[in-house]
Structures are given as structure tokens and as C-alpha cells.
Amino acid sequence: MSIKADFTQGFVRNHWYAAAWSEEITDRPLARRLLGERIVLFRAPDSAVGALEDRCPHRLAPLSMGECADGGLRCGYHGMVFDTQGACIAIPGQDIIPPTARTRAYPAVERYGLVWVWTGVGKADPARLPRIAGYGEQGWAAITGGYQHHHGNYRIEIENLMDPAHTTFLHKETIGNRAAKDVPVQVAQGEHGLKAYRWIENVPPTPLDRKSRDFGESHVDRQISFNFELPATSFVDIAVIPAGMERSEHNLMHGGLRTFSYKFLTPETDSSTHFFWLHLRNFRQDDVEFEDALRASLEKTFNEDKDMVTAIQREQEETGLRQRTAIAIDRAPIMALRMIDRMIEREKNPQLAH
Amino acid sequence: MSIKADFTQGFVRNHWYAAAWSEEITDRPLARRLLGERIVLFRAPDSAVGALEDRCPHRLAPLSMGECADGGLRCGYHGMVFDTQGACIAIPGQDIIPPTARTRAYPAVERYGLVWVWTGVGKADPARLPRIAGYGEQGWAAITGGYQHHHGNYRIEIENLMDPAHTTFLHKETIGNRAAKDVPVQVAQGEHGLKAYRWIENVPPTPLDRKSRDFGESHVDRQISFNFELPATSFVDIAVIPAGMERSEHNLMHGGLRTFSYKFLTPETDSSTHFFWLHLRNFRQDDVEFEDALRASLEKTFNEDKDMVTAIQREQEETGLRQRTAIAIDRAPIMALRMIDRMIEREKNPQLAH
Amino acid sequence: MSIKADFTQGFVRNHWYAAAWSEEITDRPLARRLLGERIVLFRAPDSAVGALEDRCPHRLAPLSMGECADGGLRCGYHGMVFDTQGACIAIPGQDIIPPTARTRAYPAVERYGLVWVWTGVGKADPARLPRIAGYGEQGWAAITGGYQHHHGNYRIEIENLMDPAHTTFLHKETIGNRAAKDVPVQVAQGEHGLKAYRWIENVPPTPLDRKSRDFGESHVDRQISFNFELPATSFVDIAVIPAGMERSEHNLMHGGLRTFSYKFLTPETDSSTHFFWLHLRNFRQDDVEFEDALRASLEKTFNEDKDMVTAIQREQEETGLRQRTAIAIDRAPIMALRMIDRMIEREKNPQLAH
What we know:
Three copies of one chain form a homotrimer.
Chain A: E1 3-4, E2 16-21, E3 30-34, E4 37-43, E5 49-53, E6 67-69, E7 72-74, E8 81-82, E9 88-90, E10 108-111, E11 114-118, E12 141-150, H1 154-161, H2 167-170, E13 186-189, E14 193-203, H3 207-212, E15 220-229, E16 233-242, H4 249-254, E17 257-269, E18 272-281, H5 288-319, E19 321-323, H6 331-348
Antiparallel strand pairs in A: 1-19, 2-11, 3-4, 4-5, 6-7, 7-8, 8-9, 10-11, 12-18, 13-14, 14-15, 15-16, 16-17, 17-18
């Protein structure tokens, strides 16, 4: 078997994608390409976030080279001013504003400290924003602001994130665990995503577990659940408890370590992805030194993924293939990609009922 | 409206283009691409400038990797020697020089401290060289040697240079003047070019004006005339006088500041331009410190243009468009580009009489 | 005349090509592209060299990002293990190894301190390895480990190496000799290659000769023979003796300086070449300081070739031509390239008898 790498399959467009961390958006405009489109993000005087096509309709000057002034975003070339709806509200040297003097505006909202942008044609309903468990709740600490630029198509990212098996080898110095390598994975599919999970029983804690809590000489039981929420959210839920402890909801939440690790994948182009990450934990919430070490460890782990994604993107481009042989662990990744394909198909042919 | 960006429209070829500053041309050959063609410039033993196709006819070695020796330009690979007419005058190891052993020679002349090269097929008449007002005349000081490499098609440069309106916004820290932003521009077309000009009356001096002369608390009247001489010369003529002074020729020349700012645009490729600049002034002629500051300020201004030109080139390549909406200030730039188009058309179809 | 530059003519594949120096191959896998193919080289536990397609059949992860472990080369992504024959011998998480779980293995052997790889379909017979005169013999010293990466098609390299004439001009500071420039070259063709040679008589020693031996005020006679062994070996044999000395075999070997300079050209892509070099001499065998200077001088010489090859590759790509005029010295290079063309033709059409 050979599976072709088709980079022209495009993106699910009717979805909120993470575009930036809120603190990135100020009155200094920020250029960012999302789903192939050049977009400028800025904060208007009323503190609303603007997300416009990053191109003045006059001579295509990037609006991100301009500045927030005169009540909107002012082009740095000839001073035309645009509001957050993309309407031109001033043209120096003339009173009449022609109807073509507009730039496309994208719906944008802020939640969870992130700015979310909608590039599709469907209704941009804030009720469809992803939900982040634990965020802002008592007993939870969050590492925010995580961002990496990855040189790979987002499908390679999804394969990576739905695939518990790679952690043993790619991340052997951080989250990897040799003991896990032969433990099979269960897969469960829902309407809006799927889950691959397994209990790894009676194994030594990973290096990261040991840094998080003192398990002494004890082994641990470890539940890891890789959740994929269509089309762009990875949510890894990890519970680590002393080996043999009863697996009640209460114990899973309070008996050891509980971690919610989110990644929001925003396609930049056909061959690159914005990788936003957010990490929540219910332990060592106020330990700054621990948090710094944890952040560094996660950065290292995600950089290992980034290097692999970059290499695979290059190989897919060179060969025109995605893979040549399938193995047992591919089940969840293949299901996830099929779900994506169906969503894209439905967007293109809305008569294919949902 | 949408205007397509057509990079295949080519260049006016029957014209003298600035190729280098005279002091750049020595017995060390210089490689420079002009109007898409790789050219090597060098100074022959009789001090004439040679301009040859930068490619040995033998194995295409760039002649610019060779040296001036044996009475001409000697290829650095096998020692074939070429004179300034492109004829091979020596081949080591053989007596007979085959007729194919030639490289194309381009007419080249020196004037105004610049080397001018002709890449067309028409008659290279030195009478058709651009004229530079004030150059070498009593009472005038010149900043010479100005050069930048710009990553944009020369048409984007022309739009920029025929457009007084952008200075308010793009150059607000140097030559820009907020007071000017709503002053309309007059446009006059001649046989060999066109002029866009305006008086900006009773305004505060710009930062650069203040550095040039002490106007005290006085406002100024400022005439700025953007001249475009087909197909590649921009000549900006600026007169600044105390507000209200009579606008006689004498006062314009002696009552304040008079500046002639020349730019010679030489297309390198479809997407890049050699930007030679030469600045003449009739004030503070011997003030070295002032001149250094002025040169730095001009470099900064032209770098702002360069960054904008680079960005617009990128957007034109990405969208295939030049602009999507027209505004009032576009009149002169659009006229200039139409004149260029007609010149190119006439070169291709000489029967379209001039 | 104009000779087209045809980069699609491909390579002679049924041949041993130098792939790496033996000391480069350890248990840390090495990625190297050979004849357009991505290959990973590694040393197996039994110290055999493995040469595999550098791509895991699962998701195309480069195997060179993995490590030698578990009895073979283990993929760094999901831990699949491959032996030197390309067979998968382990897949974590499953017992059955599907028949598609293979990667291509290339024949590889070690000789002369080099690893040789065969990318063709014909029989990889070690008897067809190139032979290196003097290697490992009494009275000879070798500089090994020479490697450069050249940005040119290997045909440009062959033209360079079969062309004694260029040394006068391109290498005037090292091996070049102005006295040689008009001495004609003899060419002799054999079944497996050809030879271009000449005696340069009664000339001053080159700078490198002088560093090698004290010739006092004496001139020298110098035989230089440029041998090309199809399809990828250049062997330059240089004998330098005091001018007028009898040219017996014994004198050529013992009366002055004798040098065997080998280059093994391995196409990397259509536009780049691995340049392995090996230098043997029968003088100053134990003089470390001399050897260091000699190595530096050779590196400098080959870098001059590299710069020229890079420039010519660029010109060939820009013009689509190889050359526009032929001169006397082209005889051997043209013969060499024709022999290559015939070999490639025979590989494609085996019925064209050898």
C-alpha cells in the first residue's frame, strides 16, 4: 500500500482557529498568515480585536506596516484608515470614499487568553469555540503563551498528536517511557472527534513524573488519553496515580498528577502550521521554579515533534506519498484524518447532510 | 476595479540606464545584472569602460571572475581575452580565433560621474543621455554615490516617486509633513515625461528643512515638483521659502532652500531595481557635518521606500494584482505608467509612429 | 555552435560510487544523497556498513534521525528496526511484520578507506571497484579524508578535470604555470576511459613544486597526465624531474617528484556533486608540516574549481547552454562526455551491445 500525500485537500474553514495570544494584540498591528490568507491583527481604540486582510485595496501595501491611528488601522503608505469591519473611513486628499475601498474583515473573538479567527463563510457562532477544561478553575495552574512555528502540513501534526506510540522513541528524554512501548491503545470515536487511550500499569514514573511529585520507590499506573476535537484541537489528558490505587474519579483527580495539555493547530499554509499550546495541571500550582522547568521540558518535547514534522513534510513533498506501510498504531490517526476529509467534503458540498 | 500586475510587460530598452558609479569601475571587473542581462563592467587599459555580456562563449564562465590583463578582459578559466567590443583577441594554446569567440558588447558612456549602458537595438546616441540640472555648477553641492538595491519591479518605484501623497505617512520622521496631506496635486504632461506639483502654503518647516536652515518661528511656503522623465529618471525639485515671500525665479533660487533630487531607476530583473540617487542643493554647500546628516536622512527615507516597495512586490506576486481601488492621488502614477507602456509598445511595433 | 546543457541526461548507475570516508560511518547514522536518492549510511553491530533508503516505510521519517539499536537501525519516530538488508525486524506494539515493511538496501563495500555504494540494478561486483595506484604501498604517503560539496552537475566537474589548460589561469597561485599555457595536449582513448597528457619542458618549477623539493636554480621537465576512468574517477599523474634528465621509468619514479591525485565524483543531484579527493606522493612522506601545507594548498586549488563550477552551473541553468564556442583544448573533455553519454545510453538500452 501507498498513501498519497495530497496537500491540495485544503482546510476546514468554518471553524474558530487560534490566531494569536491576546497579549500579542496591541495597537501595533501584527501580520499573521492563517489558512493561507494574510491577515493583520490589531486592537482598536474600543479594545476590540480587528482581523483584516493584510492588504490595502489601494496598492496592496500590507496594513501591518501601518499603525493604529485616526480611529482605526491607518495604512503606512498613503494614510487610508480602516475600521475593524474592513470599511475605509478616511482617504487623505479626498472626501469621497469609493465603494471598492474596503478590505476583508474576519470575525474575531477573545477567549481563554487567545484570539480566535474565523475564515469561513458559515456563521461564526461563538458557541462553537473550543472548550478548555480546568481553565481559570480553582486548583489549576496554567502555562500560557506557548507557540511554535512548525514547517509541516497540519495533517502531519494530527497524526503525531493522535499517536501515543511515538512518545517512547521521539521523546525518550522527557515524556517517553520505554515500559509503554507494547501497551495497546483503545480508540473511541464520537461525533465531534475521537479518543485514543490506554492504561500503562505498574511502570516506573517518567523523568517528568518524578520532577512533578515524589513517588518514592513506588511504580505508577498511568492513564493517557489523546483526544482530538475536530478539526484542530488536540487535548491530552494524563492521570498518574500510585500503582494499584483505585481508579475512582476522585483518585484520578486528587490521588496523583492530572494534566490537561492542549494544542491548537492553525494551518498557516499547505506546508506550515501555527502550533499554540496551553498546559494545565493540578499540582505544584504555585511553584515557579517547577513551572519554568516544566515549560522548558515541554518546549523541548514539542521541538522534537517539530523537527520530525519538518522532516516528514520534506519527504512527503519529495515522494508525493504520506506512507507506504500501515501498522497497528495508525488506527486513531487514520480515523482522525478521515473525519477531517469528511468535514472538508461537506463544506464543499453542503447538500451532503451533516 | 482591479488592475492586474503584469511583470511580463518588460522594459524600455532603447535608453541609457545608469549602470554604476564611475568610481566603481576599475581594472577589477564588476558583475551587474541590468534589464535582466548579466553584464560585466571594467575599465580597459585606455581607461574606456567596457560593458560585456558576463559570460565567456567557451564554457560560460562569468568574465567577472577574470581580470584585466593581456590587453583586455581575460577569462579566469582558460585565459581567453576580450576587448571592449566583445571580440576575442587571444586564446591560449591556439593561433586561430574562431568567429564564434565573441561576447556581446553594450554601448557604455560616462557622464555625471555615472556609467550609462544601452541594452537596446536602436542607435545609442549620447545626446539622449539624461540631463542633470545644477551638476558641476557654481553654487551647488552634490551628494553622489547613492545606491540601493530594491526588491521590486521598477513600476512600483515609479508609482512611489510620482506620488507626493505618500511622504506624509511613509516618511513622517524625515521629509513627511502632516500639514501637506490634503493639499491637491497638479499634473502636467509633456512629450518626454510628466510633472506632479503643488504649493504647500504657510506650513511649519519639516524636520529636514529645520536642519537645513534656521527659519526661526516662521512658517514656510513649499513648492514640490515631482518630475518623471521617460523612462527611468525621477527628478524632484523642491523650493522652500519663508511663508508669503514673492515667488519670483530669483526668490525660489536664492530666498530659501532649493534642492534637486535625482533617482535613476535601472531594472535589474522583473522583480528588482537598481536605485541610484544623486542629491543637489544650493545651501550649506561646504558644511561636511550637515552633508553627512543629510545623506543619512536621505538613506533612511529611501530605505522606507525600499521596505514598502519590497512588500508591494511580494503582494503583487501573491495576488497577481497591482491594486483594487483607485484614489485621487493616483493620477500622475497612472499617467506615467501609461506613457511607459506606450514606449514599450512602440519599441515592439516600430511602425506605430512616435 | 551552441551546445545545450541537458541536465536530464542522468547518471551511469551500474557503478560503485564513493559515498563516504570509512571513518564517517559509525553507529550514528549519516544522511547523504547519492545520484538523487536519499540514503542513510550506518555501521551495524557486526561492523558491516548499511546503506538504506533514508525513509521509514511507515510515515517516511528519515531513518537518519534514528539510532543504531535493537540489532539494527531503529527509526526515531515509532521504533521500527531495520537490518542492513532493509528488512524490518521489529515493530513495537505488534508481532506481525507486514511484507510492505521494508526499505530499499543498496550494496555497500569498503575499500581504500572509502565506502562505495551501488545504486544501479546490475550486479554489484566488487571486482569493478576503482583501483588506486600506490595506495598502501611502500614509499608512498597518502592524504585521505578529502571532501568538498560542489554546486555543479558532475559533467562540469569532468570537463574541469580533463582540461589541463585551466590550471594556468584558475590556479595561478598554486599549481598553475604560465609557462605551460601554450603546450599542446595529447589525447589517448581506451576502453574504460581516456588520457590527456603533455610534457612541459624546461620550465621553472611551480610554487608547489618548490615547496615539495629544492630544485635550486634548475628548471624542470614536467609530465602531467589527466586520466579519466569511466564514469566517475579522475586520476592525475604528475612526474617532475630536473630538466633534461632521461625519462626512464626509474627516473620518473625516483628522480624527482611523483604524485597521484585522485578525485571520485559522486553525483548528489542534477546540480551538485560530492567531490572526494585522495592524494598520494612518493616524497616527504613523513614530513607532517609539509603535508599540512600541501593539504591546505590542495584545498585552496579545489575551492577555486568549486567556485568556477558553481558559477558555470548557474550560467548553464540560466541560458540552457553548455557552451557557445569550442576551442582546441576541448578535445579530451568532449570525448569524456561522449563516453559517458554512450554508457548511459547502453544502460537504458541494454541490447546496444557493449
